[in-house]
Please model this.
Amino acid sequence: MWQYQPPLRDIRFVIEELLNLPAQWAQMPAFAEVDAATARQVVEEAGKFAADVLAPLNAVGDLEGCTLKDGAVTTPRGFREAYQAFVQAGWPALACDPAVGGQGLSQSLNAVLHEMLNSANHAWTMYPGLLPGAYESLLAHGTPALREQYLPKVVSGEWLSTMCLTEAHAGSDLGLLKTRAAPQADGSFRVRGTKIFISGGEHDLTDNIVHMVLARIADAPAGTRGLSLFLVPKVMPDGTRNALRCDGVEKKMGIKGSATCVMSFEGATGWLVGEANRGLAAMFVMMNAARLHVALQGVGHAESAYQNSLRHAQERLQMRAPVRDAARQGHEADPIVLHPAVRHNLLRQRALLEGGRLLAYETAHLLDVAERHPDDAVRHTAHDEVSLLTPICKAFLTDNGNASAQAAQQVYGGHGYIHEVGVEQCVRDSRIARIYEGTNEIQAIDLLVRKVIADGGVKLGRLIARLQRELPGSDLAARVQPWLANWQQVTQQIVQQAAQDAELPYRVADDYLRLAGLLLLAHGWVRAEAIAAVHTSPFHAAKRETAQYYLDYLLPEASLCLARIRAGQNPLPQLSPASA
Model:
């Protein structure tokens, strides 16, 4: 059956050996007291909660789903009790500012927490998953009164939050939103409109829900420039119910324990967050935090898929392997892990998973540097790199998470198609991460058009230069160095050609992002191999083997990306309407 064991050893390798985060935390006064022992304790306790409390509820949530009756949503058995334990242990406040009740730990440790929560139970994790974004948005853009009223409850997790963007006619085009907000004499607004696909729009985990709603004030400019952000609580400060309701809970492919709601705001009272007509500036703070957390969903599913399919491959006996373990002589069947096709499958999973974990944790750490480092220049550089790495993490790691789930299903064979085994739930649950918080295609456009071409590739060039400087002197590094140069070269070609062909970057964006992800993981594996090379343990030997495997079997996929980018210089054919 489907199980989850926290990958504590690999997490320690990334935090302590590869990134050396305790030494980097020491350079930032906010984290100066967080040492390796403290980090280990936090990670171990988070792992226990994920494995002991959440993992047993994963299949329960999938089978039961959520029920809506008279406007109230009931979550699956055990979800409410698990959330109460989560709050009592202080997990929502982990990376929040102590000035507002947080524990003041790093974003990288928060990333570890959320990876493990998602590995154990993606659907349950959807409920607290938006708290970090609501916290960041209110902290940066909320009025003093709103921060005083709502931030402590959000930080503690006593109240959960939502992000209300999508409308049925608009989808990802936020400029088409029709929800309206009318100013009132007391400074509040009356919000009217309907939002769809609202995760945790209604539930029984907390008494109040803080809805962050995008709406348009009368006479606002058209498009996204006319959007404003509003805080609209389920329950008003005086204890009365606000004028909003849940009109439906979607029946979905996966994450069935997460209530995905249709929310109607019928003159609900709300308060402006940030400046009028600049709601996207306040919302993007929330969206960027959410996108990194979605990337961690990809890592979480990849971990769960890998460890379960590896265990199955070690236990499942089927036919003789072409090259047998000496201990298996005389047996009629071997564990399928001895068969090359299965080993390829599992090694690919491991290489993408462990490389992806490094990329996600390093990006989370750069968030800390961008916010907390005492040197202005260092903060500025980290901010630039986070802006580039966030869309890569979201798209590349969720693509890999879903692919790993399907690869795990392949290892299980026909049993992987059966619900009771658990892998088919992993396939279904992991699929949504490629779609929400901006589809992966939108992430690719964000990276290439808004982040790279917009400044002529300057920030990307600085990132590549930093990666080149960090490469150790090794044979593997010598294989990666030319690829980083290729990345820089193709970027400049796209920047130049886009001036004459406005559609070009949109044609090649997906392959460009995939290229970036493959090269970032290659860079990470070269660094990992160099560190592992000075140790003799089986763990470090496996790191060296996986690094070699990545460069031999996965890095060549970058050639395909380059070939497709070059092919993208030609216009795509137009598609005619289907004939009758």
About this structure: The mean pLDDT is 95. The chain has 19 helices and nine strands. Residues 417 and 424 are 6 Å apart (CA to CA).
